[in-house]
Design brief:
The chain is α+β, with helices and mostly antiparallel strands. The chain is built from 17 helices and 19 strands. The strands form four sheets. Strands 12, 13, 14, 15, 16, 17, 18 and 19 form an eight-stranded antiparallel β-sheet that branches. It has a five-stranded antiparallel β-sheet with strand order 5-6-10-8-9. A four-stranded mixed β-sheet has the order 1-2-4-3. Helix 1 (7-20) packs antiparallel against helix 3 (56-69), helix 9 (238-252) crosses helix 11 and helix 10 (264-273) packs across helix 13. Keywords: FAD, Flavoprotein.
Length: 478
């Protein structure tokens, strides 16, 4: 591979071998291939090398060499992103920096309720280390067995527990970052109060590696709950689900940790492609909510709260039917229904995905109005609407009409569908990316809907911190 590189890239790759060891500089196609295609297989790029540093100091050495040779770098964690943010372009002139070898848990402080981890630690491992210390790390998402904490921070990942604990930004106290100049900023302060200037931590979280490379972080831990109780509730509409959310807040307050909305069509798709997953009610309902309470007192206390909540919801007619998980296996089965919706969509065929958020109070109106606009513009398009109702984040996805050629449908209608959905989001003062990031997938759409002032501020920050434009170019901003 290096035989075909320019003299500049050849010199850069050779210098990287000296800096981090030849075994960790991958250039052969069979070695680099897994790093060059994104998880959804929408983007495949090329790279002069895949670099696998093992320490923060080695990351800094790579960035310094990239500066000297003017080589762009694409940071990558578990490569589970959904917006193409960790995939190089097709030029072959960029280098992928895989952080998978930065996989140490540096410290756990049970009294301070913190864990300090390197960027390449897999999310599930952070959860496991926390649990071993009798603590909870609450970030939870479908890719937790392979995504890394660095990637979670770079995209400000959300997941199923944002309602109670916040997204990744809210779970982070401090960072270690290699700047675009190859310097190391040690901001690993495990403090909940630090009012000494600009909040650099928040600047790097969600920046998708465009302002620097996160190499380690101090993350918050919480006491393990004494019990979790899960239930499914059937409702007539998203408007009813919003009223049910308000009622759940009144009864459970901070004990409410999950509130997921699933349309009937979502569950029909799951049943079609995974028939072993039984529909939980005797008859179909327009919407189903999966809710979970986590209680630090006892399971009896949590169940008593649930019974009071459900009794009022059923007696008032707000909820049409409900079933409460009796054990851990049943709770897991309820969550499996929710988590298999994207898998069922994939089995059904190519589809258009949207990771949007609007104010929680607007969810019902947004779904109503956007469904109607799409039905008018493209009769037969099937809406697969589900997501984190408790924090306003919907996965508002669209499937081709039944029997249609899905690739042809996408080629003809994807741009139109995106515009209908994003225009509706914009009218409701929402966002076109709630938890997946911008990457390269939504970079043009973000520029279209953000104000000129906002875009100018972002470009000013990028130019100030990364004047050579070597940090993940083409992502977030063009």
């Amino acid at each position: 591979m290096t035989d075909t590189l320019s003299p500049t890239l050849t010199a850069f790759v050779s210098a990287c071998r000296d800096a981090i060891g030849a075994a960790h500089v991958l250039t052969e196609p069979h070695d680099t291939a897994p790093f060059l295609t994104d998880w959804r297989r929408r983007y495949t790029g090329a790279a002069c090398a895949v670099l696998r540093p093992g320490t923060t100091q080695e990351v800094a050495a790579i960035v310094a060499l990239a500066n000297a040779h003017r080589v762009a770098l694409v940071p990558q964690g578990g490569n589970t992103g959904l917006a193409g943010g960790a995939t190089p372009d097709a030029s072959g002139s960029q280098a992928v920096v895989s952080l998978a070898r930065l996989n140490r848990v540096r410290a756990i402080d049970a009294h301070n309720n913190t864990i300090t981890v390197e960027a390449g630690v897999v999310l599930a491992e952070v959860q496991n280390h926390a649990r071993a210390a009798d603590r909870l790390f609450p970030l939870s998402l479908a890719a937790e067995g392979s995504c890394t904490i660095g990637g979670n921070l770079a995209t400000n990942a959300g997941g199923t527990a944002v309602l109670r604990y916040g997204n990744t930004r809210e779970l982070c106290l401090g960072l270690e970052v290699v700047t675009p100049q190859g310097e190391i900023w040690d901001g690993l302060r495990a403090l909940r109060k630090d009012n000494t200037g600009y909040d650099l931590r928040d600047l790097y979280i969600g920046a998708e590696g465009t302002l620097g490379i996160i190499t380690a972080a101090v993350m918050k831990l919480y006491p393990l709950p004494a019990a979790s109780v899960t239930a499914l509730a059937a409702l007539a509409s998203p408007h009813a689900a919003l009223d049910f959310l308000a009622l759940a807040h009144r009864y459970a307050g901070p004990l409410l940790t999950g509130f997921e909305l699933m349309s009937d069509f979502c569950l029909q798709l799951v049943g079609k492609h995974f028939p072993q997953m039984r529909y939980p009610f005797g008859e179909r309902h327009a919407q189903v909510v999966l809710l979970e309470l986590s209680d630090n007192e006892s399971e009896a206390h949590a169940r008593a709260l649930f019974e009071q909540l459900m009794q009022e919801a059923l007696e008032s007619g707000l909820v049409e039917d409900a079933v409460v998980a009796e054990n851990l296996a049943q709770s897991r089965a309820f969550w499996d229904l929710r988590e298999h919706i994207p898998l069922a969509q994939a089995e059904e065929g190519l589809n258009v995905k949207h990771d949007i958020a609007v104010p929680i109070s607007s969810i019902g109106t947004f779904i109503e109005q956007t469904d109607a606009a799409i039905a008018q513009a493209i009769p037969g398009a099937r809406m697969v609407t589900f997501g984190h109702l408790g924090d306003g984040n919907l996965h508002y996805n669209l499937q081709a009409p039944e029997g249609d050629d899905a690739p042809a449908f996408l080629a003809r209608y994807q741009a139109q569908l995106n515009r209908i959905v994003y225009d509706s989001v914009h009218r409701h003062r929402g966002t076109l990316s709630a938890e997946h990031g911008i990457g390269q997938l939504k970079v043009d759409d973000a520029a279209h809907y953000k104000s000129p002032v906002e875009m100018a501020i972002m470009r000013t920050l990028k130019a100030a911190l990364d004047p050579l434009g070597l940090m993940n170019p083409g992502k977030v901003l063009r």
